[in-house]
Write a structure and sequence with these properties.
The chain is built from eight helices and four strands; from the N terminus they run βαβαβαβααααα. The protein has helices at residues 29-42, 63-75, 91-100, 114-144, 155-161, 166-192, 198-207, 220-240, and strands at residues 10-18, 46-55, 78-81, 104-106.
Amino acid sequence: MVTKSVPSPKFVAYERVSTARQGRSGLGLEAQRRAIDSFADARSAILLARFTEIESGKRDDRPELEKALTLAKLTGATLVIAKLDRLSRNAAFLLTLQGSGVKFLACDMPEANDLTVGIMALVAQQEREAISRRTQEALAAAKARGIRLGNPNGAAALRRAGQGGVALRAAVSDNADAFARSLAPVIDDIRKNGHHSLRAIARELNARGIQTRRGRCWHVSTVQNLLGRIERLRHTRRHTN
């Protein structure tokens, strides 16, 4: 009697890292990869590919997720993520996953199914709308009390502020430094993959869906400024350690 061998399951891994929180995340990229690899090994699965989304939580487009879903459809593979509850409030992700028709598994919640994801998506969408509504109501109430919202003069107001603007300028600089530190590992990875010119780095950052601190696309000048700030931060760290 000939016994038919059971084919190994096929997995496509999808990982997500937010640039703003990468360093503080309780489940960073390496932890996600370990969880997915262990999950695949325990099931003797073949890991066909790994897609990593480096994104801002405010963005709804997920090009790497689309690539992962397309490959899963073409190969009949199952999409695997490390931690579903980390994405349970992300309506765009959940709705995309639900509508794809692709089989999926979450390492932390392998019993989750289409119904689970559908309910999570509805809850996430309601929370998102509620937060937006509360924000608009708070801004309207502040405006009604005579509070001026925003700074229409931008940098010009800082220049006129003189000594009074020292604290504000320091805060702006600290925010820029924090942003540069969060992108330093991404820049290192881009260079490790052979992209060294300013134009090539800008192209890679844009391809990965990473925006500038002002939410815009990268250009040679903005990459140059970023690299200069990263180098200055590293130089300062070397001389203070």
